[in-house]
């Protein structure tokens, strides 16, 4: 389950950007997960919840936002979305497409409660 190592990386990244004294105030960490990234959002949330339990961030929740896999056809110039990472235009069946979104994993936001 590579989601556990991803959760560890999220924790380390948050720790790099939030001072020690502010970590207990973290309420939410928002991650954008590409639909074709290979990351299972539920498994990542489970791993994150487990990994923060013995840290000052134990009250933080992981909010996941799924970003659709989107391609643009170089033949017909149309954009199409699918969940499977299908690398063919859904309109004209051309394999000549460029990926616009849906393959990345991005730490988008860290929210803290007011002091």
Q: Please list the strands of the largest sheet in the order they lie side by side.
A: 2-1-6
**The first-level CATH class name of one domain:** Alpha Beta
**Unreliable residue stretches:** none
Strand content: 25-35%
Fraction of helical residues: 10-25%
Explain what this protein looks like in three dimensions.
The chain has 115 residues and is α+β, with helices and mostly antiparallel strands. The protein has a domain at 3-19 and 26-67 and 100-112: 2-Layer Sandwich (hypothetical protein PF0899 fold). Helix content is 23%, strand content 33%. The protein contains 2 helices and 6 strands; from the N terminus they run αβαβββββ. The protein has helices spanning 3-17, 41-52; strands at 26-34, 61-67, 69-73, 79-82, 97-101, 105-112. The strands form 2 sheets. A 3-stranded mixed β-sheet has the order 2-1-6, with helices on one face. Strands 4-3-5 form a 3-stranded antiparallel β-sheet, with no helix packed on it. Helix 2 (41-52) links the parallel strand 1 (26-34) and strand 2 (61-67). Helix 1 (3-17) crosses helix 2. It is elongated. The relative contact order is 0.25. The mean pLDDT is 95.
Which structural traits does this protein have?
single chain; 115 residues; hypothetical protein PF0899 fold; three-stranded antiparallel sheet; 23% helix
């Amino acid at each position: 389950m590579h989601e556990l190592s991803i959760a560890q990386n999220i924790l380390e990244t948050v720790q790099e950007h939030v001072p020690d004294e502010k970590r207990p105030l973290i309420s939410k960490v928002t991650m954008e997960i590409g639909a074709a990234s290979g990351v299972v959002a539920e498994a990542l949330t489970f791993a994150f919840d487990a990994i923060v339990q013995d840290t000052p961030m134990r009250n933080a929740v992981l909010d996941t936002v799924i970003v659709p896999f989107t391609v643009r056809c170089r033949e017909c110039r149309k954009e199409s979305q699918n969940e499977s990472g299908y690398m063919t235009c859904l309109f004209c069946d051309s394999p000549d497409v460029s990926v616009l979104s849906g393959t990345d994993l991005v730490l988008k936001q860290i929210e803290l409660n007011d002091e």
